[in-house]
TrEMBL record:
Keywords: Membrane, Transmembrane, Transmembrane helix
InterPro entries membership: DtrJ-like
Lineage: Bacteria, Pseudomonadati, Pseudomonadota, Gammaproteobacteria, Cellvibrionales
Superkingdom: Bacteria
Keyword rRNA-binding attached: no
Originating organism: Zhongshania marina
Name the UniProt record assigns to this protein: TIGR03747 family integrating conjugative element membrane protein
Transmembrane segments: 24-51, 151-170, 197-214, 220-238
Length: 244
């Protein structure tokens, strides 16, 4: 049994670039689904226990309108910036319109507020339950719309992460060269720990921003995490082995 395990370990091949790419894509999809469910659950808990009576879904509705403003406010100084923001805003608008308006979901949810009885006890039972939790259903719909808007904002923030990554790597390589020529010590332990934090920092930025239960300017979340991402890459590059 021990020899078989050794053989299996020895023959295990490292993931290729394509394998790592698809693994990253599937992880991002998992992060987005988790963030969407978490944001809905947080909003429901706040409605049930923390928001004042009568607030209902107004908080999620106001949050959606503010996020729309954040998506459209970032007008760039160049035509290409405005074109990119306009393209992302257009895609977000089309996705929300398709999911909630064209699909008829908004009308169906609105009809649940005052359900019509059909005479079928089974159907009427579930319609009454849906009417009792109408506020929660509408808030979930607004939260999902907010989620899509924030997703568009995160797409627009990718260049910020790339910029901080480039600065961090360049600074780290400069420190590495100084360490190389000044006879500094190796620190593989720090390098491997910094390497482990690269992906979690990205995922944490997405999860926190997509799940936060109140409207907040994206710069207050994206900029610190982009800077942290650059710092992690700087540490990783600076502690990379001196001689390749």
């Amino acid at each position: 049994m021990t020899e078989a395990r050794r053989d299996t370990t020895a023959t295990a091949k490292p993931k290729t670039f394509i394998g790592k790419f698809f693994d990253f894509i599937f992880r991002m999809i998992g992060v987005m689904l988790f963030s969407a469910l978490l944001s809905i659950l947080i909003e429901w808990v706040c409605i049930a226990y923390f928001y004042p009576d009568g607030t209902g879904y107004s908080n999620s509705q106001d949050m959606m309108h503010k996020e729309i403003g954040y998506l459209g406010v970032g007008e760039g100084d160049t035509f290409s910036d405005n074109q990119l923001i306009g393209s992302v805003s257009g895609v977000v608008d089309k996705v929300i319109t398709f999911l909630f308006v064209d699909s008829g979901l908004m009308d169906k949810v609105a009809a649940l507020e005052n359900p019509k009885m059909t005479g079928n006890k089974f159907v009427d039972f579930f319609r009454n339950i849906a009417a009792d939790y109408y506020v929660f259903l509408v808030s979930a719909m607004y939260i999902m719309a907010t989620f899509i808007i924030r997703l568009g904002i995160l797409v627009l923030s990718i260049p910020a992460f790339i910029l901080f990554a480039i600065v961090g790597i360049c600074d780290g390589l400069a420190k590495r060269d100084l360490r190389r020529w000044c006879g500094g010590n190796e620190s593989g332990y720090v390098y491997h720990w910094a390497k482990r934090f690269t992906t979690p920092v990205l995922f944490a930025a997405w999860i926190i921003y997509l799940s936060v239960p109140y409207s907040i300017h994206p710069n207050f979340i994206i900029t610190p995490f982009a800077a942290l991402y650059g710092f992690v890459l700087m540490v990783m590059a600076s502690k990379f082995k001196k001689y390749l």
